[in-house]
Structures are given as C-alpha cells and as structure tokens.
Amino acid sequence: MEGKAVPGQLVESRSGRDSGRVYLVVEVLGEGYVKVADGMVRRLENPKKKNLKHLVLHHRVAEEIAEKLQADERINNPEIRRAIERLVGNPEE
C-alpha cells in the first residue's frame, strides 16, 4: 500500500539498513517524507526521516498515539513500543 501516511500509522521499512523493521509515523513532512520512530533503536528524540516510497504503509493506526500527536501532547518511547506491539500482535485491528 503506497499513498498518504497519517500520524500514528504502522509502517514497515522495505529498503535500507533497517529493512523489515516496523515503526510508527510520528510526523508527516511535505514532499513525500515522514519521520518514524520505534521507541527502541529510533527513539522520539531522534526520529528517522524516511521516503514514503521506501515504506510499506499498513492500514493499522495507533489511535491513542494519533490523538496525542494531533493535540500536541507529549508521548514517550514506552508508549510507542506498546502501541507497535499491540498493532503487530492484532493484525485485524
């Protein structure tokens, strides 16, 4: 699935050194780029800038993270890790 990403969306890297790693979108930038974090290797303090062409966009969104990002509320790395675990563990969500 390629297209538009939204904050809190589950994505998977399809190219590069981090190929196969799953992330959550933490910021949507212009010109087809997003910033992603996984709360472990790529923490919120240093999110990775990725081209949308290099990501597999999944239909699953961490609603609680998306709401906090929309409201400019603070999120932390353990929240990101828990959200990814929930989304990866529940494929029908």
TrEMBL record:
Keywords: Ribonucleoprotein, Ribosomal protein. It comes from the Bacteria. SUPFAM superfamilies: Translation proteins SH3-like domain. The keyword Ribosomal protein applies. GO terms for cellular component: ribonucleoprotein complex; ribosome. InterPro entries: Ribosomal_eL14_KOW (IPR041985), Translation_prot_SH3-like_sf (IPR008991). CDD domains: KOW_RPL14. The keyword Lyase does not apply. This is RNA-binding protein.
